[in-house]
């Protein structure tokens, strides 16, 4: 396992669409493990493969309920609406309010290649949407309805 460098805004890899994983081999599992390690080191709640310069549809998330590894994640259902503050490891120091679904259902493959589904609400729904956006080259700043100033940022926990 290795810590990977997190690509920052301006790096074109963040604007590219990641390709589906066609074979879950040891290379893919190593990338997932590196992503998890990199996410934890940076105190993030999620990371998409684009952020470490890999254009494959891989996401890791941990909102405090354990590590989720998602291969080829896809939103299959969404419901409601929430507006909340969001940040991104690729855009340090910026926090913006983003409108997201209140609840989402995501279909994905686990590391054994088994098809699974996860339902997320609130922070988990937000993290799932944020990371899947990354796989499509979309950043939260594209969707932010308002950016927070320094004083407001101190009162908000970044996600
Ligand atoms: Zn991000």
Folded structure, characterized:
The chain is an alpha+beta fold and 159 residues long. The protein has one domain (12-158): Peptide Deformylase. It is 25% helix and 33% strand. It is built from 4 helices and 8 strands; from the N terminus they run H-E-E-E-E-E-E-E-H-H-E-H. The strands form 2 sheets. The chain has a 5-stranded antiparallel sheet with strand order 1-2-3-6-7. Strands 4-5-8 form a 3-stranded antiparallel sheet. Strand 4 and strand 5 form a beta hairpin. The longest helix has 16 residues, at 26-41. It is globular and about 45 Å long. 31% of the residues are buried. The mean pLDDT is 95. Zinc ion (ZN) binds at residues 88-90, 130, 134. The site of zinc ion has 5 residues, from helix 2.
End-to-end CA span: 24 Å
Helix content: 10-25%
H/E element string?
A: HEEEEEEEHHEH
User: Residue-averaged pLDDT, rounded?
Assistant: 95
Here the CATH topology equals Peptide Deformylase
How many individual helices? 4
Per CATH, which architecture? Alpha-Beta Complex
Going by CATH, what is the homologous superfamily?
Peptide deformylase
- Please tell me what the overall shape is: globular
CATH class: Alpha Beta
């Amino acid at each position: 396992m290795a810590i990977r460098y997190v690509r920052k805004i301006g790096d074109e890899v963040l604007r590219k669409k990641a390709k589906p994983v066609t074979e879950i081999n040891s290379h893919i599992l190593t990338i997932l493990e590196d992503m998890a390690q990199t996410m934890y080191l940076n105190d993030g709640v999620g990371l998409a493969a684009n952020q470490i310069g890999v254009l494959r549809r891989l996401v890791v998330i941990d909102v405090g309920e354990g590590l989720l590894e998602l291969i080829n994640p896809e939103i299959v259902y969404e419901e409601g609406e929430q507006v909340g503050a969001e940040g991104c490891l690729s855009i340090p120091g910026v926090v913006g309010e983003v409108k997201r679904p209140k609840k989402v259902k995501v279909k994905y493959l686990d590391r054994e290649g088994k098809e699974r589904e996860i339902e997320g609400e609130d922070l988990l729904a937000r993290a799932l949407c944020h990371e899947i956006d990354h796989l499509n080259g979309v950043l939260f700043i594209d969707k932010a309805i308002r950016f927070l100033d320094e004083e407001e940022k101190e009162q908000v926990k970044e996600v």
